[in-house]
Amino acid sequence: MAWFKRQEKGIITPTEQKKETPDGLWYKCPECKTVVTMAEHRRLSYVCGNCGHHDRIDAGTYFELLFDDGQFEELDAAMTSADPLVFTDTKAYPQRVQSTEKNTGLKDAVRTAHGQSAGQPLVVAAMDFRFIGGSMGSVVGEKIARAIDYARQNRVPFLMISRSGGARMMEAGYSLMQMAKTSAKLALLAEAGIPYVSLLTDPTTGGVTASFAMLGDFNIAEPGALIGFAGPRVIKETIGKDLPKGFQSAEFVLEHGFLDFIVDRRELKQRLANLLGMVKK
Ligand SMILES: [Zn+2]
After folding, report:
1. Over the stretch 22-37, which tens digit does the pLDDT of each residue have?
2. Residue 2 lies in a domain
3. Which of 48, 198, 225, 274 could form an SS bridge with 216, CB 3.0 to 4.6 Å?
């Protein structure tokens, strides 16, 4: 088997001549392990074409998916957090905000914008999990409150896309006040007769679930999203019982009457347009 023998020893390809597969060219579904090109994954709105797994996407990607030709105007883009409690855990809070800003290019855990979606005006507030777990601090609350004000003043429907671990511990009580503030603004929106659709994505938990995320005229969710207030471990320890299968999944929550419907992200824009078209005055 002389032909099978490596004649030269060692790997001698110089580093600069090695062919590498560029990162970010392929996507592998974490559920069913199907591999597709990133271009195909993007074309499918970041949903697995095989099993329907919804990949987590950021606020900017939702804007691109929803607004016509990706055109929108962002509201309060420069608002950043103060440090009202002078809070320090493993780092000081302002340092944590600064390093997260640097890593993500975001100013806080929500982005708000208005534009046209399927030819109709729409205000969207989309949370971004990359910014301290999508936690709700005073900037998140204030930006959502102002987006609701904008929707009310301009008589434009409001869509909230939640993806959050809950209140931001570094702002403690200030975070909790955002629940009351956003809820009060939504009450004014309802009084003015402007439709509000709340889309719950994976995960929507804590103070976000306990306030604006569950106050929609329509509460809808992405398939498989974790939706709950406290985590399953905490609940299990509190009630001392095993939890049912699929507990806190969007499908479970729908079956128990907390959601109106579950929507595949590939159909989100069209279904939203149909829904808003129906309730238009
Ligand atoms: Zn899959």
Report:
1. 667 999 999 999 999 9
2. no
3. 198
Give me the CATH number covering residue 79: 3.90.226.10
Which range of residues forms the domain containing residue 199? 56-279
Q: Pick from 205, 173, 168: which is nearest to 93 by CA?
A: 168
Residue 155 shares a structural domain with residue 239 = yes
Same domain? For 38 and 171 the reply is: no
pLDDT tens per residue across span 82-135? 999 999 999 999 999 999 999 999 999 999 999 999 999 999 999 999 999 999
Whole-number Å distance, alpha carbon 280 to ligand 1 midpoint, is 37
Residue 123 domain-assigned (yes or no): yes
| Stretches in the chain below the pLDDT threshold 70 | 1-2, 10-12, 15, 18-23, 281
Give the distance (Å) from ligand 1 centre to CA of residue 39. 16
Beta strands in 52-204 (DSSP E): 72-75, 110-117, 120-127, 158-164, 196-204
Same domain, 35 and 169: no
- Are residues 47 and 152 both part of a single domain? no
Is residue 241 located within the same domain as residue 272? Answer: yes
Ligand 1 center to 269 CA (angstroms): 22
Annotated binding site for Zn(2+): 29, 32, 48, 51
Q: How far is the CA of 163 from the centre of ligand 1 (A)?
A: 21
11 located within any domain: no
In the beta sheet, which residues pair with residue 235? none
CA of 28 to the centre of ligand 1 (A): 8
Compute the distance from residue 27 Cα to the ligand 1 centre, in Å.
Answer: 10
Residues 6+ apart with CB under 8 A from 276: 120, 122, 157, 195, 197
Q: How far is the CA of 30 from the centre of ligand 1 (A)?
A: 7
